[in-house]
Design a protein that fits this description.
alpha+beta; 2 domains; five-stranded mixed sheet; 4 helices; elongated
Length: about 180
Amino acid sequence: MKNNVEFYERQIRKQWWMYLLLAAINIIFIYGIIRQIFLGKAFGNNPMSDGWLIAATAIMFLFSIITLASRLDTFINSEGIYARYFPFNPKYKFFSWNDISQAYIREYRSGREFGGSGVRIKVIRAGGIHFNGREKAYIVSGRYGLQLELKNRKKILIGTQRPDEIKEVLKKLQS
């Protein structure tokens, strides 16, 4: 699988505001636990039970860890392209060169095209009917991605922070 790797990239979330927001939310929940459980003062005008407050805090903390630990790993070799969005995809998704009709770098807008970052499926709206499109994206951040057009007419977009390096690798492998 990882033989003769021509390109490898690991992308992590670098949005400082996300770290700040998640830290603030977790601090509020921890303050609520301290105030309500340890000091015996109600947290808010209509406080949750102690059990629900602990559960909500644990869920928020777990959500924060998963969000901040998420990453996109991509590597390209002579067999094809491998991508995974960890922890949601623990195993690499493999795209064989035999199944790819085109591979190129393109610019995208994650919010407009896919509704944000993560593992996303483009939703197509036609005549008031919503249905899943045949386009999937693996996006952490940025505006450039490796667009794969597969022979089965599906499209895969893999975000990258190093588009020029991928272009060079594609030239080398496709020649």
